[in-house]
Amino acid sequence: MVKLTRIYTRTGDKGDTGLGDGSRVAKHDLRVEAFGTVDETNAVIGLAQLHAEGELHDVLARVQNDLFDVGADLCTPEQEAPKYPPLRVTAAQVESLESRIDAYNAELATLRSFILPGGTPLAAHLHLARTVTRRAERLVTALMIEQSVNPEVLRYLNRLSDLLFVLARRANGNGDNDVLWVPGANR
User: How far apart are alpha carbons 49 and 83 in whole angstroms?
Assistant: First the structure.
């Protein structure tokens, strides 16, 4: 269990930060950008959760906890023989998202157009979380070119953006109140 007795350490005052394996990198390092954007995703989901109730609230709480797993995974570079076994995202976490996507999507109105981010406050926040998730996903793919990354992290983020899209539609009356894109409407 984590025990924080001090919030500031001063160790990053020169522009570097510690990773889960004890190594230090620049605060602008691609790995730090990736897990920092996962943290940003989590914060936006926290905003969405303010507007959610019941099952949707619980699903978002579970996702928030998973996102800490994603961040911990990204924060700890893969090693051949680590001193302590690192926390890694698992296929089961990805499969859980997939089953939720399938269940919620089955209840939605059929898509007939692209959807503009908006509608209810919950849907708007979920769309924002979806776009931040996509940015985290792009950063992870860039990181994967340079360094080894658990592939389940990328799979999780990819499915999470899909889940957030489906949940946004659910928050918009199961898609009945989605804000639809009208191509060329303002020409």
Answer: 37
Unique residue bearing structure tokens 């089961």: 92
Kindly list the distances between the CA atom of residue 113 and the CA atoms of 11, 101, 109, 164, 168, in Å, as whole numbers in the listed order: 50, 19, 11, 18, 15
CA distance 133 to 165: 11
Contact indicator for 170, 126 with CB cutoff of 8 Å: no
CA distance 40 to 82: 28
Tens-place pLDDT, residues 130-168: 999 999 999 999 999 999 999 999 999 999 999 999 999
Considering only the top CATH level, what class is 16-180? mainly alpha
Sign, CA torsion 145/146/150/152:
negative
Angle between helices 151-171 and 54-75 (to 10 degrees): 160
Per the listing, tokens 């990354």 go with 149
Q: Scanning the structure block, which residue is given the tokens 């849907």?
A: 123
pLDDT at residue 2 is higher than 70 = no
Q: pLDDT tens across 102-134, in order?
A: 999 999 988 889 999 999 999 999 999 999 999
In the block, tokens 């792009």 appear at 138
